User: Which sequence fits this backbone?
């Protein structure tokens, strides 16, 4: 079996993995070539996509001979038998691990841009590569995924050598492959186009939403347009992603929390739900890369609210109603900006796990209908939102999402947030 390219291989592989949809898996691509294949799998299953970064621990005098592997989160898998046979002691292990840890962190930063990896605890994890020759990297990836808390590990590839297939059967709970040709010499020979996958392509795929297809309403895929947003008298340009479905009745402007950015996977998941409902969205960086290093600016709510107000004024050229979705400290900036905008400034506001107390002096001036969403287990923030609801002098509602913590990472919690936000925005269109 030959494949046109990695996209073709990914689509065919996804068809063989359809039985896993009900397990709500996480799909992990091995960089670089495994990510384009994994993207097609994740998109078909409506599953989140991430990379699994693995660094081989090689014998000091023969680095090609691996005695273990290193993964993110401090995970280390070591073969004691190979260490003994190769006479690798604890000092050798520490030295090799230091070197590989540096490379691992560099790769993680390059591919994720500072975003946290998707938690694997208790999840079904599908590890995907574009093919397997020897199986050493795939084996390490399976071990690392399990050590990071995966409940079930599925290894899936379009093509593999027969020897690798036999060796890997015990590494995963399920091994899925489309072909294991007996005359196997290299992965690339089974692809008509096996050109190198560049880092930029990996980053771009990781930033795209893959969860749309798990919803029946996902009949339109809306592409985001990169935009430059001038602020501070056009002295500074902020990066943003604007998505405008045809005939969008409103645009929801996202204000992310401290330590996050327009690439926030949680905000992007909410934005994808809004896009499928026909609403436009703008996710943008409130700060430049340099400003984001200044912790004082990260928590300067008045400054952030000013930025949000400038971006709002810029976006009025779309001639549609504007709404705010704020998360954590971003919710405080959204409420502050809504208060300064006055009557008719923005149509509505939704706060996810917000810190309205940071905009306490402005709450009584907010006129836009406001929905406060808080996790039931996020007790401190819940108390702050109850106090804020009492101070708001506008239509408002506090909804507690049972069993959810501050980041709404629990199964179904973020989907609930997205659905409630979508209902609030659409119900309060002028």
Assistant:
């Amino acid at each position: 079996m030959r494949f046109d390219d990695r996209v073709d291989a990914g689509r065919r592989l996804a068809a063989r993995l359809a039985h896993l949809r009900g397990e709500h898996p996480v799909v992990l691509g091995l960089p670089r070539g495994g990510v384009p294949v994994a993207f097609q799998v994740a998109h078909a299953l409506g599953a989140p996509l991430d990379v699994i970064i693995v660094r081989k621990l090689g014998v000091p005098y023969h680095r090609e001979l691996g005695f273990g592997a290193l993964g993110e989160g401090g995970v280390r898998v070591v073969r004691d038998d190979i260490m003994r046979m190769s006479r690798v002691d604890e000092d050798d292990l520490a030295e090799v691990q230091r070197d590989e840890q540096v490379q691992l962190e560099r790769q993680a930063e390059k591919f994720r841009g500072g975003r946290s990896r998707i938690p694997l605890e208790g999840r079904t994890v599908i590890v995907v590569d574009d093919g397997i020759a020897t199986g050493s990297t795939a084996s390490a990836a399976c071990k690392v995924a399990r050590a990071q808390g995966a409940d079930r590990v599925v290894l899936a590839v379009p093509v593999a050598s027969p020897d690798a297939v036999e060796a890997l059967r015990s590494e995963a709970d399920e091994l899925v492959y489309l072909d294991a040709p007996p005359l196997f010499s290299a992965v690339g020979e089974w692809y008509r186009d096996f050109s190198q996958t560049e880092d930029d392509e990996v980053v771009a795929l990781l930033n795209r939403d893959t969860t749309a297809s798990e919803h029946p309403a996902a009949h339109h895929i809306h592409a985001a347009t990169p935009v430059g947003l001038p602020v501070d008298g056009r002295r500074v340009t902020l990066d943003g992603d604007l998505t405008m479905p045809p005939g969008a009745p409103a645009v929801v402007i996202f204000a992310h929390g401290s330590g996050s950015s327009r690439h926030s996977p949680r905000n992007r998941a909410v934005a994808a739900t809004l896009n499928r409902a026909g609403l436009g969205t703008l996710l943008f960086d409130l700060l430049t890369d340099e400003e984001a290093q200044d912790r004082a600016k990260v928590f300067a709510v008045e400054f952030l609210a000013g930025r949000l107000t400038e971006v709002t004024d810029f976006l009025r050229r779309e001639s549609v109603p504007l709404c705010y979705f704020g998360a954590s400290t971003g919710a405080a900036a959204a409420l502050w900006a809504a208060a300064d905008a006055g009557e008719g400034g923005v149509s509505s506001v939704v706060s996810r796990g917000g810190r309205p107390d940071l905009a306490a002096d402005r709450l009584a001036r907010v006129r836009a209908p406001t929905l406060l969403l808080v996790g039931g287990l996020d007790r401190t923030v819940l108390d702050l939102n109850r106090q804020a609801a009492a101070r708001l002098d506008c239509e408002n509602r506090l909804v507690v999402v049972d069993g959810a913590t501050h980041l709404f990472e629990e199964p179904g919690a973020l989907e609930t947030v997205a659905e409630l936000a979508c209902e609030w925005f659409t119900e309060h269109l002028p």
